[in-house]
Amino acid sequence: MIRKERMKVIEQNEIARNIYELTLSGQLVEEMKGAGQFVHIRVSDSYEPLLRRPISIASINHELEQFTMIYRAEGRGTSLLSIKKPGEEVDVLGPLGNGFPVHEAKKGDTVILVGGGIGVPPLYELSKRLVENGVKPIHVLGFQSHDVVFYEEKFSELGDTHIVTVDGSQGHLGFVTSVLAELQQDFSMYFTCGPLPMLEALQNMYPKKKGFLSFEERMGCGIGACFACVCKTTEQCSVDYVKVCSDGPVFPAGVVHI
Amino acid sequence: MIRKERMKVIEQNEIARNIYELTLSGQLVEEMKGAGQFVHIRVSDSYEPLLRRPISIASINHELEQFTMIYRAEGRGTSLLSIKKPGEEVDVLGPLGNGFPVHEAKKGDTVILVGGGIGVPPLYELSKRLVENGVKPIHVLGFQSHDVVFYEEKFSELGDTHIVTVDGSQGHLGFVTSVLAELQQDFSMYFTCGPLPMLEALQNMYPKKKGFLSFEERMGCGIGACFACVCKTTEQCSVDYVKVCSDGPVFPAGVVHI
Amino acid sequence: MNRLKVELPGLSLKNPIMPASGCFGFGKEYAKLYDLSVLGAIMIKATTVETRLGNPTPRVAETASGMLNAIGLQNPGLEKVIAEELVWLEQYDTPIIANVAGTLMEDYVEVAKQISKSKNVHALEINISCPNVKCGGITFGTDPAVAAELTAAVKAVSEVPVYVKLSPNVTDIGEIARAVEAGGADGITMINTLIGMRLDTRTGKPVIANGTGGLSGPAVKPVALRMVYEVAKHVSIPIIGMGGITTVDDVIDFMSAGASAVAVGTANFVDPFVCPTIIEHLPEKLDWLGINHVSELIGRSHR
Amino acid sequence: MNRLKVELPGLSLKNPIMPASGCFGFGKEYAKLYDLSVLGAIMIKATTVETRLGNPTPRVAETASGMLNAIGLQNPGLEKVIAEELVWLEQYDTPIIANVAGTLMEDYVEVAKQISKSKNVHALEINISCPNVKCGGITFGTDPAVAAELTAAVKAVSEVPVYVKLSPNVTDIGEIARAVEAGGADGITMINTLIGMRLDTRTGKPVIANGTGGLSGPAVKPVALRMVYEVAKHVSIPIIGMGGITTVDDVIDFMSAGASAVAVGTANFVDPFVCPTIIEHLPEKLDWLGINHVSELIGRSHR
Ligand SMILES: Cc1cc2nc3c(=O)[nH]c(=O)nc-3n(C[C@H](O)[C@H](O)[C@H](O)COP(=O)(O)OP(=O)(O)OC[C@H]3O[C@@H](n4cnc5c(N)ncnc54)[C@H](O)[C@@H]3O)c2cc1C
Ligand SMILES: Cc1cc2nc3c(=O)[nH]c(=O)nc-3n(C[C@H](O)[C@H](O)[C@H](O)COP(=O)(O)OP(=O)(O)OC[C@H]3O[C@@H](n4cnc5c(N)ncnc54)[C@H](O)[C@@H]3O)c2cc1C
Ligand SMILES: Cc1cc2nc3c(=O)[nH]c(=O)nc-3n(C[C@H](O)[C@H](O)[C@H](O)COP(=O)(O)O)c2cc1C
Ligand SMILES: Cc1cc2nc3c(=O)[nH]c(=O)nc-3n(C[C@H](O)[C@H](O)[C@H](O)COP(=O)(O)O)c2cc1C
Ligand code: FES
Ligand code: FES
Known about the structure:
Bound molecules: flavin-adenine dinucleotide, flavin mononucleotide, FE2/S2 (inorganic) cluster
Helix content of chain C: 25-40%
Oligomer: heterotetramer
Strand content of chain C: 15-25%
Structural class of chain A: alpha/beta
Distance between the termini of chain C: 25 Å
């Protein structure tokens, strides 16, 4: 069920340049089902900024009733969010959307998780769950440069992790696709979240593989009512369009027209 | 000179119901000349609320580079101001306007200071200065009820202090005028700040006395440029209008058409 | 006594609060959050004869205390709205106001004729004011003669009272209001969005794919309020007011200006529970004002 | 090379930033805060033939990300403005744009004729759009034929180029813009304020004594930007854009939409140093955009 709650800031840290890791606590965590869902955040009680900001759930701790998100402080809303201190409250609506179908991967499977920039966070909870289920994840994480890389260690603890930077300042030089090309190809499926060109490249690279892609779109309501976040679908899909907020943000490869 | 500075919150206390005493520090204090001037406060960096709030200077401490104001948290802006904590910053423009002419009162004079509600604060710095100059102030301070009375002790330390409440829950019952009628009448002048009906009553009560009244008006710029805060003048005045922000807020009795 | 009950042509409202068209879909999403029967009414998303897929994305952009949208009247089309959405909504004890849109006058007439037969549609809202569709829509709303003609044509076929939704993008809103009243409108709803634009500062290009969008939210409240006030002086049919309503105080203001009921749009995105919250707090606010019944508020600015 | 220099009819601007009329008086107050010579130009407060005392107070009210004003064109009158205010302003190396207002066409013509002779008045801004004066003003700005006629009449007597200030409270801003261009205007300034209202929630009465007021500030930026964009498509004379400008980014946006220079109004009240601050930061922003000269921004949204 979707709830709205003023959740408490437990911790907030800048873990890379302008990249913040924020942990919140509250009963809403009870509702969080899986990896790839998101929350819709109101960063202040002012009318300016007005709209909520969609941010992925990066990890869930049901025992402590806490969850963590990782975001880039860029525009007005995320900058305001980044100055929240422990003890302060954040207005959260969530959990929203349908996440990654963890159970598609079976015990013993090898799967590939491909993230780009601030598309990396939801893959962390996903990877934890896959490992719990006995699946072996391989992570390929692309960033702009070394100063915005985060969670390399955390992902490494869960499985093989390949870091790629556009300027080569950390890990491999180039794009995730160049690393992917060199990887073993006997994985059962891929999961990915990141910029549209990356999603498109992946889909083209593995036309025969099962894949699940997480999309981004500008949102109004975040719950499926306003038709702000629609994506056209491909011909092989039975509906004309899907809404990223309520039908997604994760869709099987081939559904969304990129 | 008028300055704009992000001043630091030193202390903030609720000293009566919804009445806050806020002490700020910064170099801008150097410019504060006298009692009755005000500052123009921006309570947040958001565009909402947009406009600055005019608040009187209640006391000045040049040594510590600090000043104190006292305000009622009522609408959106003052409510936001009231949650500022020590260490946070407040955007202050000031000092603005022309305060009370302290030197009109001569050593040995007895003067009357009449305040109503949130018109009381500027009289505190005024009273301190008068006492410094060897003037004897008598304070008549009107409030709605006992729970919004503040600074009784502080004023008492400086001179005779009469508290009046509309509901009689503290001090005298009724309005400041009823107390004034019973007071000695051999004072040289009066100074007053408070709601318009009170200013009018005072002016009518003492047609022959020298008096200085501090006015309020909705403001735009606060510095004399926008013509938002003009008041019509009486016939005996040589100009057609005055601006509360830059010509006032204090005017001699008889200048402003009430 | 129900202190919040308001009677309008075709609409017996248990309270004067309803979600605005396009900000509530056909109710399904919000039904997961609260019982829709608490609402005074529901204004459903604009319905056109044919299925519409709307504009390219991005379709929304944030502005200071407001937002722009250019959804482009995306909706499943008349047939599906009647057969699926409206039938689904029958489970709630809430009158539906069907928002009618189209390109040509015939489209409006067709939608009005069919949709007004649905059991739970108690009124129509003729959307002559959507700024986000290229032909039709906006022009109907800016020419008094055309607006009157369209009103009359819809009125002739509708089985329920007809409200006309006015555009704020006009020189003289009073003139348009009088025209639609003369055309036979049973009520007016206002305002639709103001035309606006946001640019990407880096590229200089519009953020919204459509170029321009409709401005809504708290930023437009002063404009909406003044227009409701203005129109209330010119017509004797009731007004359902909207534009930036977010709090109980906003509701009081719109009704004071002359609205008999109000709609809440953008605020649903900021707080999906805003409608029930307002409804819950309205009685206390009436107490604070020393007012017995909400209808005493209507037009008190003018008295 | 001066990266910020912009040449407009009558105006050689060292940078495209100037305070908007009515938000800067005649400069005296801001001169105590900074050297007015840093400004591209100054648009002085509206001047009428006679002394005007303006509307009753309250004259301003705050709204979400904006404000309402109904000052009512208070000013000392033509004679004093010329003899005192303009003479005082001569000490600064900054061209003055004189904002001309009145009730009848003759008033405008009279003010234009006299004030355009002042040494430092390099252009006139004909205020056909003030929403806060009962007769004149607003009607001139909403009727294309009248707007064109007034423009021609002023143009006939003015010794300096004439800019016409447009009202946003119209159905078709492009039409008015074309009309004043046809009437001989050398440039357009836009937008003036949107008509709006705020009510006291307790009493239901307007907060502003005048009833309605003009809405300005960040809230109106999307509307202003779209109108500048629209007018830029319709006319070939330059536009000075305004409406909510507060930051360097806002300046970039207005110039991208088609403005050749911009004016800053309400933001002066929020931060009296806003104009020099914007001017100071403009070059870094050009660097960030990879642009050499500010004029390269003009109209880039359209390209
Ligand atoms: C399902 C989903 C999950 C996301 N998860 C994350 C995450 O885990 N970490 C992270 O850093 N970012 C994430 N994003 C992107 C994030 O929503 C934007 O970076 C953020 O909204 C920008 O807000 P701002 O205040 O910084 O920018 P502003 O420029 O102030 O934003 C203005 C408006 O545009 C919207 N907007 C701007 N950029 C985007 C964008 N890329 N996607 C959607 N809306 C946008 C904002 O929400 C706001 O309404 C996610 C987006 C979606 C749709
Ligand atoms: C020269 C001067 C000195 C003042 N000194 C004090 C003081 O020492 N202590 C104190 O508590 N109050 C003082 N006031 C009144 C104070 O400015 C208002 O109470 C305050 O602006 C209200 O803001 P808000 O955010 O609570 O209300 P909101 O309702 O959010 O205000 C909306 C707008 O109206 C303006 N406004 C509302 N009430 C007033 C008012 N009474 N006077 C002027 N503008 C108003 C606000 O500034 C703002 O622009 C003074 C006013 C003036 C003019
Ligand atoms: C995303 C969105 C979609 C809208 N769709 C419609 C619509 O389909 N039909 C219509 O008449 N109005 C539509 N509107 C306008 C609203 O119903 C309302 O008139 C306007 O938004 C002003 O109210 P607000 O400020 O409370 O949002 C839409 C508004 C928004 C924000
Ligand atoms: C207090 C105030 C007074 C104004 N007076 C005038 C005026 O005398 N003449 C005029 O043409 N515009 C006047 N305006 C309009 C501004 O010049 C400007 O067009 C408008 O405020 C939009 O810009 P902004 O949002 O930056 O304020 C006034 C605006 C304000 C806020
Ligand atoms: S954001 Fe409203 S439908 Fe997706
Ligand atoms: S507030 Fe602007 S002149 Fe006084």
